[in-house]
Description:
This protein is of the alpha+beta class. It contains 19 helices and 13 strands.
Amino acid sequence: MIQPLLELINTHLNVTQVEKLEGGFVSGQIYRVHTLDKKLNQNKVFYIKYLRTKPILVSKGRTYGEESNLHYLAHASQLKTIQQYIDIILPVASYEYSVKGDRKIFMILPSAEGESLSKLVQNNNIDTINHAFAVLGSSLAKVHLSSHVFSGPKGSKIPQTKQDFINAYVSSHGDLHGDNVFYNSSTKRIAFIDVETMANSFDEKDQANSPVCYDMFYMLLMSSKKFGEFMPKNNWGPFLNMFKSYIEVYPMKQRQGVYKYLIYCLQRAHKIDFVDIFKYFNFSKKFGNTELKGADVLAQQLHLLKLEHFKQLNIGRNRSQECKDIIENTYRPKGSPANSPIISSKLHESSPRLRAVTAPASFSPAIPSPKVPNKFPLPVSTAAIIETNKVSLHSLPLKVGVEVNKVVPLSVALKGVAVAPKGTSLPAVPKKVEGAVNKLAPLSIAPKRVTAAPKRTSLPAVPKKVVGAVNNLLSIANDTIPYHKWSQEKI
């Protein structure tokens, strides 16, 4: 039965051997068919893949969906771009027939060249494995660069920052693990098989809708199942090569953002779920403890590579000159020649402190910059007037005390008076004023029957006679508050 089917594809094929393999969730029985091309005298391998008539854990809709997904990929416009960098193995023929009214489907697919990553790990050739993972990383990056979907600020189509890569979308295999990736050491090419899930990474408008890290992280998710203990024993070296090669494909202006994005995702691997959507339930997959430890190791190693990359970016750079150029481009008036002063007319009208900071004398020798005082001058009095963006302290005549008290009685709270700058000392009180104050309230009089001052209050207690005299002097229309009452309630 198999020989006539293959002759429909190529009349020169002769079947030499047939092997029965284990099927998957969606697939039914699978056969590996060895053939000889009599015309070219070459051995070729094909796979005959049956779809289940009674699906296990999947709906019939999804079973038939595999056929429709492969048909979509075969005619997808994006496939040609992807196949420039990765070989996508699609059926060369598809057949269907009915048995007692039951529809049956099978497909014939060519074999991928090379060996699967799972087989390479079993052979334990560490150099070949590292190179295969590196080629996988660079191939994925080339696909992502050529067919990503991103719309950034101001219409930008190129992601550069970590947030940009979070908001970018690419095509993905959808079920990428060691059995589905083949590496040809002769041609240095990567091939994907079982690609029906790739159709799910495109939306109704045929635009990519998969996260940038999806395939690489799904490979990490399936690491223990497909590679056993190989990766932890080798300190996750192949995966590091994959990430490193992926980043190196990007232009220099984008690499810093890719580093940050991948480190960000690896550090949050414990929050990532991969969900298979079935007809009656969802099947969620999470990273195991081994993979989470691997994600931590990879995040640390990528962080060190990011720092090294940042050092390389700064070799030979004149940061001082770059800062000067930025300042000149920011403050030079529009239309002025390159050698003109960078301070505009608006800048001249700004405050002296602003001009002293933004326009040092070294940048504008023709226009001297005012010097900023080391400290504020000490005020003659504590009276202050508030002005916009600055405080002006005004001096008063030496005959203060009674003069000030006549204007601002002690019983009225001061309003609109600015707080004196920190470290400002008040001027000494003239002896004449001190004597006048002592005549009103001599400090030598012992207090009698005066309410105790609140705790931590350093004001001296005032006798009742003095209180009455002061209240008579300081009464103001309806706003009068007795001094003894004010001292008890307001302090």
